[in-house]
């Protein structure tokens, strides 16, 4: 079955967006992508907390309680019988006559969610992939997960054209994150990742990996690092929902370390796999 959730109702997927939906016209909306493992939504509470924060930052009043939306999303995953995949949830401010300023009259946010099956990512995680570098041309509120993703899609397109899995973004000398993932580097046994401020999206996977590192007694420093640090790192990996941990073997054609997934990255990937495997046997 391919059902979607539209404003609280399960309906058959169809496309019907009012042309004056502010999400459609301005990208005035927020979203979350939640991983599904063994039919279970992974880290859903964390995703919903981030959604709540994004809504607050954009003054969008969420038209549901956390408990209700959670119930609906679990139901949607069940109805669509997705075992391995992801769930996309989007809330736009709603429909109002087009003006740049926020509508004076009350608008009803538009809530949409759908699920998607995903193929096996084991090989990508085991083999690693390549990345390119791109200047980070995004705005200064990358901490809000909004629908405005054009700089991200453009950067990713360049990566794909060059056979790479990701575009790692640099603001001048500083590496921030990647077009749709967070970036970690390892040097002399210490893991570095950009601090969670307005220059990056604080990935849910990023936060889980930091927690795993702490549990493994591996030192992790949330500090800005440079393009030179990236290129001379022993290991580099990216994190994102459902990708989990993907080793980066080369950046712009420069080998990272041995040019193969490093030992620490593999250790972190395995720890993440154990965590998601536990969901599947619950
Ligand atoms: N940064 C950006 C710009 C992203 O789009 C994403 C994925 N949505 C991430 C980081 C990773 O976040 P998460 O681990 O929550 O998927």
UniProtKB/TrEMBL annotation:
CDD domains: D-AAT_like. Pfam families: Aminotran_4. Acts on the D-isomers of alanine, leucine, aspartate, glutamate, aminobutyrate, norvaline and asparagine. The enzyme transfers an amino group from a substrate D-amino acid to the pyridoxal phosphate cofactor to form pyridoxamine and an alpha-keto acid in the first half-reaction. This is D-alanine aminotransferase. Belongs to the class-IV pyridoxal-phosphate-dependent aminotransferase family. InterPro entries: Aminotrans_IV (IPR001544), Aminotrans_IV_CS (IPR018300), Aminotransferase-like (IPR036038), BCAT-like_C (IPR043132), BCAT-like_N (IPR043131), Class-IV_PLP-Dep_Aminotrnsfr (IPR050571), D_amino_transT (IPR005784). The lineage of its organism: Bacteria, Bacillati, Bacillota, Bacilli, Bacillales. It catalyses: D-alanine + 2-oxoglutarate = D-glutamate + pyruvate. GO terms for cellular component: cytosol. Keywords: Aminotransferase, Pyridoxal phosphate, Transferase. Homodimer. It comes from Pseudogracilibacillus auburnensis.
